[in-house]
Amino acid sequence: MVGIGIIGTGRQGADHARRITSLGDKARLVAVHDLDLGLAGRVAEECGSRVAASDQALIEDPEVGAVIVASVTKTHVPLVLACIEAGKPVLTEKPLGITVPSCERVLDAEIAAGRRYTSVGFMRRFDPEYGRLKAALDSGAIGEPMVVHCIHRNPSVPATHHTRQTLTDTVVHEIDIARWLLGEEIVSVALEKPRHQPSVSHQLADPLLVRLESRNGARVDVEVFANAGYGYDVRCEVVGNKGYVALGDGPHDLVTAESAPGQGFPTDWLERFSEAYDAEIGRWVEGLGEADPSPSAWDGFAATVVAEALVRALQTGHREAVSVGPRPDLYR
Ligand code: ISE
């Protein structure tokens, strides 16, 4: 049985903590830490674990065999590096890092250590619906994939949310799912902004239309809408030269914030991707590190390279080329 430590016990970390406690004799939640020790204490009490006095104390705890990082995004890379240094497998929430150089530090550390320690929480890859799309593509049922249509809507985001965050925190899921479904890297990106919504702050362009181009020339379009109002709504359709396959969240005729409650939309990703999180955590615990099928540090790095190109496109207003470079042997 492996002892797990969780850093960051906000909504996401607390949700992971509860899942660990439901894994029976495969894993035990040993310790949690949060900058808000009161919050950590409440999660520890609910899940029967200890509270570690600091993140480093948690990582070095001899009873902690593997770590989940669910703290704020800017802490992901330093904490992942500390786990690698301590020789402990780590599952970090996405994105791996906000900047490309920070993600490169993780790749360098794993390559120097000669093994993979890091898994990145792109949980959609474990969602049964996305799994169905991937299986249809891999079986050749729809022929060669030509176009991927994605929709990613959140009911609302805090007033402090800005466009860059939409790209690095939210669109990053679509980047990962596009790379995974198509099995190839992204080579260019572009984006467009519809007219400004007066109800939204000037630091947020919302919704946004994002376009990705894959190495073999497939095109991905993403509508990302952070303040859609009516619910959490994620859709995907892959069009091939012999047919199409889509997530089963069929379109509704008319949806508004008022009509949505009766129409069965999830309120957020924890609800929509509950099964995916179960599978993600379960498979991670079974594989811990090298045998684990989760997205690797390379996947985290590649997604951030594309997200960073989108941030450039936001500034320049032009299509931006993307190059992730050759995949190191460790990640083949
Ligand atoms: C949010 O930032 C997330 O972290 C979720 O995983 C994602 O599904 C959601 O739409 C994002 O806004």
Explain what the structure shows.
- The protein has 332 residues and is of the alpha/beta class.
- It contains ten helices and 13 strands.
- Helix 4 (76-86) runs parallel beside helix 5 and helix 5 (100-113) runs antiparallel to helix 10.
- It is globular, with a radius of gyration of 20 Å.
- (2R,3S,4s,5R,6S)-2,3,4,5,6-pentahydroxycyclohexanone binds next to helix 7.
Average pLDDT level: 94
Give the biggest sheet: 7 strands, mixed
- Tell me the fraction of residues in β-strands, as a range: 15-25%
User: What pattern of helices and strands is seen along the backbone?
Assistant: EHEHEHEHEHEHEHEEEEEHHHE
End-to-end gap = 29 Å
Question: Which key terms come to mind for this protein?
Answer:
332 residues; globular; 7-stranded mixed β-sheet; alpha/beta
Give a brief description.
The chain is of the alpha/beta class. It has ten helices and 13 strands.
Write the layout of secondary structure elements.
Elements: E1 2-7, H1 11-21, E2 27-33, H2 37-47, E3 50-51, H3 55-60, E4 66-69, H4 76-86, E5 90-92, H5 100-113, E6 118-120, H6 128-138, E7 145-153, H7 163-182, E8 186-192, E9 208-214, E10 219-225, E11 233-240, E12 244-246, H8 269-272, H9 274-287, H10 297-316, E13 320-321
Parallel strand pairs: 1-2, 1-4, 2-3, 4-5, 5-6, 7-10
Antiparallel strand pairs: 7-11, 8-9, 8-13, 9-10, 11-12
The protein binds (2R,3S,4s,5R,6S)-2,3,4,5,6-pentahydroxycyclohexanone.
